[in-house]
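Practice problem 4.
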């Protein structure tokens, strides 16, 4: 089983200096690539000078996470792609449980390891935690992370189980599946494109798994922090994109209508918190969604739509009304 670890970089020389050594030292047997999104810093020269064994793919432009990986992965011949953020510190033997899972789970097409917080190593990290799910309205959440609530890692998710989506911070995907799905949707630019990819994969009969016996540490927020209005814009808009593309028409329209109402509530909440930039980001997200609606609708999958896609009816209701922020509690409801 050939694995290519592919790190997407854009002006991230400092991150490569800090975190590439762990990848190089703990990824025996894997090929290491850096896909550079037309950086203007000294990233490429740094790699050529200090890591001559790293294979560099230079993209012609910065097309974001989605296009960056789509362009780069066309040039890599391997069995498994590992899409790894440049701000991830891996652990010794992190690849062995992944290889074993692919061998023992032949119907698994996409995997993710346990994602812990590099700044607080005994806690899960926002981007992926212990595997991703969505509720009936398309809101994503994770085992170990519900909205901004992060659980302490006490071994409660050291299992291997099927999930709905795997994080783009560290995603393993069979190369033939990635290409068959057409890669990431480049209209997303960044954020939640992995949710869409996994949703399309599940609509096509593939399965996604979490492997808690492998772990990595993620810094997070290196490109856009959670407090950046652009991230608010991308998350709100791209979530609506995914609903439009991946649900049957009647259900999609109903869910979109309900989401628009809840997004309005979120916008009002931002006003009350005096976060006017985030309020405007939601307004812009909706305007962009309306502008691109026809295009997204035409992208709808030809495969059968799965109807048992959600783990909760409303994560918003469970979290904000019932104050539930631990996945194992949510799952029992």
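Answer key:
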């Amino acid at each position: 089983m050939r694995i290519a670890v592919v790190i997407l970089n854009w002006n991230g020389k400092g991150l490569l200096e800090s975190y590439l050594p762990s990848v190089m030292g703990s990824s025996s047997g894997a090929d290491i690539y850096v896909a550079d999104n037309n950086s203007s810093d000294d990233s490429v020269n740094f790699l050529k000078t200090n890591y001559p064994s790293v294979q560099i793919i230079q993209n012609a432009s910065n097309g974001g996470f989605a296009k960056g990986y789509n362009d780069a992965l066309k040039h890599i011949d391997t069995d498994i792609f590992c899409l790894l953020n440049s701000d991830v510190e891996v652990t010794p033997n992190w690849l062995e449980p992944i290889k074993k899972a692919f061998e023992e789970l032949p119907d698994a097409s996409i995997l993710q390891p346990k994602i812990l917080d590099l700044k607080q190593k005994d806690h899960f990290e926002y981007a992926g935690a212990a595997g991703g799910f969505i509720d009936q309205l398309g809101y994503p959440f994770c085992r170990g992370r519900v909205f901004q609530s992060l659980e302490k890692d006490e071994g409660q998710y050291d299992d291997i189980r099927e999930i709905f989506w795997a994080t783009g911070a560290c995603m393993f995907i069979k190369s033939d599946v990635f290409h068959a799905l057409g890669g990431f949707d480049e209209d997303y630019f960044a954020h939640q494109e992995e949710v869409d990819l996994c949703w399309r994969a599940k609509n096509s009969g593939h399965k996604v798994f979490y492997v808690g016996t492998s772990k990595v540490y993620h810094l997070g927020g290196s490109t856009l922090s959670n407090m950046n209005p652009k991230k608010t814009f991308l998350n709100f808009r791209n979530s609506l994109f995914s609903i439009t593309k991946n649900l049957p028409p009647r259900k999609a329209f109903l869910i979109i209508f309900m989401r628009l109402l809840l997004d309005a509530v979120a916008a009002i909440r931002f006003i009350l918190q005096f976060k006017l930039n985030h309020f405007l980001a939601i307004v812009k997200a909706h305007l962009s969604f309306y502008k691109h609606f026809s295009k997204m609708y035409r992208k709808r999958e030809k495969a059968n739509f799965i109807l048992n896609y959600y783990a909760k009816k409303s994560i918003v209701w469970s979290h904000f009304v019932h104050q539930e922020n631990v996945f194992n509690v949510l799952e029992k409801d």
